[in-house]
Design goal:
The protein is of the alpha/beta class. The protein is built from 13 helices and 22 strands. It starts with a strand and ends with a helix.
Length: 402
Amino acid sequence: MNGKRVLLIISGGIAAYKTLELIRRLRERGAAVRCILTKGGEQFVTPMSLAALTGDKVYQDIFSLTDESEMGHIELSRAADLLVVAPATANIMGQMAGGLASDLATTALLATDKPVMVAPAMNVRMWEHAATQANVATLKSRGITFIGPTEGNMACNEFGMGRMAEPADILKAIEDFFSVGGLLSGRKAIVTSGPTHEAIDPVRYIANHSSGKQGHAIAAALARMGAETVLVSGPTNQPDPAGVTVVNIRSAEEMLAACTDALPADIAVCAAAVADWKVKTTAGQKLKKDEKKTPPALELTANPDILATLSAAGNSRPRLVVGFAAETENVIDNAIAKRARKSCDWIVANDVSPETGTFGGDSNLVHMIDEGEAETWPRMSKQEVADKLVARIAQAFAEAAQ
């Protein structure tokens, strides 16, 4: 970790005392550590102790950052390679999920374009509360990495889930992050995500139930691996991943144009659920019901095939093109046929039947299909699917370079 820069945000939990050991171990491994200490955190550790261990100034009050010659909160949040919140209380996680910027810590977290890790620490009832779990789900959907919590005895004399991970475990997570963080450095990736909306008239459109969660998670994972990542996204409610260039589009034609503009690239992952058809002629005004309420006849035509186009891009073809196959029956057979038909390198197939909850849900069960037999992965969160897929992409490029 020589030369790596960690911004450690210490919030107000009794586990804050463990951060002193974490700082010592990070410094032993050559990392530069800078601290933001909240008012709550100051009740458990002192600025003097942190400054002595880090060899750097401890930042506490946003309103003290008034001189442009001093490091401002924007630069403070972006000068690090990684932000770590430890302990991460229920309060600060709620503020992060809500996009609040009420002090220096939360302002830095909102302003950063770097990866964020959190090590939760709180009472078991607080951890299990529906509000906390909703905030955890929101933060995970944004690509924030969680370290713990663990189960055990607590300072409040209760037992359960909510103890902050030990410094050694947090250190390992940070070391693992930096060990893989640059594997795709120097590579460029294009990711498509979400649905497309194909206009019928100015107020109606053809679409599907894709949430964009999987595509956005893949883009975030690629960025964490060091790839210059362009995310071409249809209309979704997903937040923009940190460190990713986002191009928002509506239609399949706009998505294809954005992908073409992003070439050349090393990697293309087509995770979007692109509408296969569009209305041949979009009405200029809202279609009205006649007296008989006769539905209008819509003449459909095929949309451009983005996956096939990128796979056949000649000298501009990405070295690795990965498609997704969303199926409701014969998942693996249909995906194998799609891979051959589209001429892509890999296909990630999944069952999107309504009973699976894949569309709009937080988990996915996928089948990886390349030149060999289909490999079925266990059901896992969409973030875990993204991490596993991107690790496989990094491995493929590492092997090709040998």
